[in-house]
Amino acid sequence: MELTLLGTGAPAGLPRPDCPCAACATALGDDARAATALLVDGALLLDLTPGAAFAAARAGRSLGGVRQVLLSHPHEGPAVEVPAGVPQPGRVPDRRELALLTGHRVRAVAMDSPGTGYAVTGPDGQRLLYLPPGGAPAGLEEGSSGMYDMVVADVVGRPDALARLRAVGAVGPTTDVVAVHLDHDVPPGAELRRRLAAAGARAVPDGATLVVGAYEDVPDVPRRTLVLGGARSGKSVEAERRLEAFPDVLYVATGGSRSGDTEWAARVAAHRERRPGSWRTAETCDLVPLLAEDGAPLLIDCLSLWLTDAMDAAGAWDDAVWADGGERALRERVRELTEAVRATRRSVVAVSNEVGSGIVPATASGRRYRDELGRLSAAFAAECEQVVLVVAGQAMVLRG
């Protein structure tokens, strides 16, 4: 089954008309996108958008063989005038199936918002899922739909849709996830590709033809990632974004609750409110047992607070204790942690503060903490497939 993407953008296209934002200003060439529309085997058109016939011609395809046009967007009826020779668009009722003479079967997938998703099974059994903008499948049950060969969806706007599909086994390691309905929320080009790759997805230019069931282009999601950054750099947001498209994430908060500290409580609440509701939270610095267990992905926020706890336990703030075994005890804790990261089978995203580029601390204990955090970050990074530095909300890939 072949899929030609006549457009991959949001309903208003990218760049948006009359929008002065930086993303729209740089959405040029392959990064310019018409509204999303899919042509399946030249016979089935999913969504009819302005200029569809010309888009097909530019991609070396024709709409002359289209036998069915289906709409996914919330609105009823065709989006634009129907080109000559193309059937009138329709919509399949939720959970009903349509059989085409070409051998394709199309089942309407109920969504959690207005609109219709379509599960298409080709004549040879390949399975494609197409979701409308801003929507996620509703009423999913584990094993109810089987695994799709390709998912075409609003990965940027609704990463939780991908998480839901992964949770029930509808998306697996070999599923090709293609992001569409792309808008100006993420800068086009390298930044968009980086964010999608972290979610196990990719973007393709308008006019691309893909073979459903060919897995060579499915990106490998890094299993261990370290996200570094200064205060308020956006490092925690970057770390959380990397796991939004995965189910059952365990958020490991190493800072504790700090009873009575209202400012700290406000920070914790802000973090909790922006996390997906399906995530669980564990407040602990005992990371080694968690890393040794099989289970859901871990988001560890953060290693700098873990180090504070480890230095407290080792008495590392006192010069005499530091010289009399404290340093050895801390080194052992760090070694145990890095060995656990090396051996873990779980997906891990860890956050750490980058403090070595600022003012030299005035106290010996402060300088000791700065030095030990630098050593910890270096040792942890050595065990990660990907290392990212976040500056002013912009992520720079150091490794991977």
Automatic annotation (TrEMBL):
<dbReference type="GO" id="GO:0009236">
    <property type="term" value="P:cobalamin biosynthetic process"/>
</dbReference>
<dbReference type="InterPro" id="IPR036866">
    <property type="entry name" value="RibonucZ/Hydroxyglut_hydro"/>
</dbReference>
<dbReference type="GO" id="GO:0005524">
    <property type="term" value="F:ATP binding"/>
</dbReference>
<keyword id="KW-0067">ATP-binding</keyword>
<keyword id="KW-0547">Nucleotide-binding</keyword>
<dbReference type="GO" id="GO:0008820">
    <property type="term" value="F:cobinamide phosphate guanylyltransferase activity"/>
</dbReference>
<comment type="pathway">
    <text>Cofactor biosynthesis; adenosylcobalamin biosynthesis; adenosylcobalamin from cob(II)yrinate a,c-diamide: step 6/7.</text>
</comment>
<comment type="pathway">
    <text>Cofactor biosynthesis; adenosylcobalamin biosynthesis; adenosylcobalamin from cob(II)yrinate a,c-diamide: step 5/7.</text>
</comment>
<dbReference type="GO" id="GO:0043752">
    <property type="term" value="F:adenosylcobinamide kinase activity"/>
</dbReference>
<dbReference type="Pfam" id="PF02283">
    <property type="entry name" value="CobU"/>
</dbReference>
<keyword id="KW-0548">Nucleotidyltransferase</keyword>
<keyword id="KW-0169">Cobalamin biosynthesis</keyword>
<dbReference type="InterPro" id="IPR003203">
    <property type="entry name" value="CobU/CobP"/>
</dbReference>
<dbReference type="InterPro" id="IPR027417">
    <property type="entry name" value="P-loop_NTPase"/>
</dbReference>
<keyword id="KW-0808">Transferase</keyword>
<comment type="similarity">
    <text>Belongs to the CobU/CobP family.</text>
</comment>
<comment type="function">
    <text>Catalyzes ATP-dependent phosphorylation of adenosylcobinamide and addition of GMP to adenosylcobinamide phosphate.</text>
</comment>
<dbReference type="GO" id="GO:0005525">
    <property type="term" value="F:GTP binding"/>
</dbReference>
<keyword id="KW-0418">Kinase</keyword>
<keyword id="KW-0342">GTP-binding</keyword>
<protein>
    <recommendedName>
        <fullName>Adenosylcobinamide kinase</fullName>
        <ecNumber>2.7.1.156</ecNumber>
        <ecNumber>2.7.7.62</ecNumber>
    </recommendedName>
</protein>
